[in-house]
Specification:
This protein is mostly beta strands and 177 residues long. It contains 1 helix and 12 strands, in the order H-E-E-E-E-E-E-E-E-E-E-E-E. Strands 1, 3, 6, 8, 9 and 11 form a 6-stranded mixed sheet that branches. The longest helix has 10 residues, at 2-11. The termini are far apart.
């Protein structure tokens, strides 16, 4: 029964992804309680989703609690995100259907992390992110989600323990006519 309860709790978490672990770097201080909950980037247009597209963590359109650091794979990754921290991406899906969503993550903790994926507040899927042996040891998790056509806010949110995020990638599997 305990395993069923845990599974139900994990399945119910689906939102979007980012990382969660205790802050260990003074250069990456957590925001104080007076900081705004959402930090949006300046006037970002929705990204057109008409084929395979990669969304780097730093190209988010809004976030809460997320910090960044240099990535061992080049560029910058989201780091040390706590449970409840999230990032959003504005997307414009030209044709609704099933999309593979890949998440490039690292989890240097000893427990598995969970990141939920949402579109416009509706839970679509969840990533289970096992330990990778280091906070810059990257691997990719995959899920399949159903997206309707049109403008939407895709959110990745940490719902259990922690991880770093480099990017997410959407790739059409089956589109509606």
């Amino acid at each position: 029964m305990k395993r069923i309860t845990e599974l139900v709790a994990l399945v119910g978490a689906v939102v979007l992804l980012l990382g969660c672990r205790e802050n260990t770097s003074p250069a990456m201080m957590l925001p104080d309680a007076s900081a705004p909950e959402t930090v949006a980037t300046a006037d970002v247009s929705a990204r057109s989703i008409d084929g395979k597209v990669r969304l780097d963590a730093t190209t988010h359109d809004g976030q809460a609690g997320v910090r960044f650091e240099p990535c061992s794979e080049g560029g910058t990754n989201a780091v040390e995100v706590d449970v409840g921290d999230w990032m959003e991406f504005s997307i414009d899906v030209s044709r609704g259907g099933l999309y593979a969503i890949d998440s490039r993550f690292a989890n240097g903790g000893t427990n598995g992390a969970v990141a939920a994926i949402q579109s416009n507040g509706r839970v679509l899927s969840e990533f289970l992110l096992p330990p990778t042996g280091g906070w810059q040891n990257w691997t990719t998790a995959r899920s399949v989600i159903s997206l309707g056509s049109g403008l939407q806010r895709l959110r990745i949110e940490c719902t259990k323990t922690g991880f770093n995020l480099n990017w997410i990638e959407l790739d059409p599997v089956m589109r509606h006519p």
